[in-house]
Structures are given as C-alpha cells and as structure tokens.
Description:
By secondary structure, this protein is mainly alpha-helical. The protein has helices at residues 3-14, 29-43, 48-56, 59-62, 67-72, 77-85, 94-101, 105-123, 131-148; strands at residues 19-22, 25-28.
Amino acid sequence: xxxxxxxxxxxxxxHAKQKYYIGRNAYPFFDSHVEPVAAIxxxxxxxxxxxxxxxxxxxxxxxxxxxxxxxxxxxxEETVEAVDAVTERKGETPIQFLDRSIKVARAIVIRFADSSxxxxxxIQQTGFMELNRYRKRIQKHGRVVAITHPILPDPRTLKD
Length: 160
C-alpha cells in the first residue's frame, strides 16, 4: 500500500464537498488547503508518513472519520499519532492545543505547514474579511509559525 496515495484518497473523499474561501471566491478545500499543506511538508524533505499526516490533518475535525477509523484503514501509527496531535479538541484552549501538538515531532511539521498556509490565505483575504477577525487569524497563525519553525525536527531524524 502506498500510504501517501491512500491518505490522499481518504482526504479527497472526506473533504469532497467542503470549500475554502479566498476573498469572495470558493475553491475545493482539498486543492486549496490540504494539498498546499502537504506540498510544504514534501518540499521540506519529510517522508511519506509525515506527508500522509499532512494530507489527513483535517479529516477527523471536518468529517465523520475518527482516529480509530484511520488505524483500522491501515494508516501507520506514527501518522495517526500526528493526526491526533493536530486535531483540536472541544474545550481546549489554543495554548493547550499548541502545547499538546508540539509534543509529537510530525505534528510540529504539520502545524507549521498548516499555519503557514492559513497565514498566507488570511493575507489574501485583505479587504474581504472583517478587520478584527482578520487580525485574530493573522496573530493566531503567525504565532504558531513563529513557535513551530525553530523546533522543526530534521527530516532525517524521522523514520519513514
């Protein structure tokens, strides 16, 4: 089984009806958000288990998929652990979420790539988003990028 291909199939199906807004335009969520997150992870030299985690990073939050369902589907435990670490929990503060996610090496990489794309996407919303919401998103994603970038693990240290 090619894990990246399998993760992509799961993510494409899970996000098939979702949209990602840039300005006033709606785009397919997978193509406009999920794939760019995975592309950053791939470009930084991380291996298939981390790229698969990037592809799956929103499926548990945004679809009926569960962590156990990913395991049952044959997704490697290292990937499932990263997806679990980047999945927000109800009642969790942003600081609690960040603290939990930076304890897992692959999750650090995925949070960095996710927040990088979110930051970029928010900048593209200039003039289309209410100013306070815009500022909060820039601050939130900018902080995550600033915190995770210096602690990104060397891709060679992750066994893929």
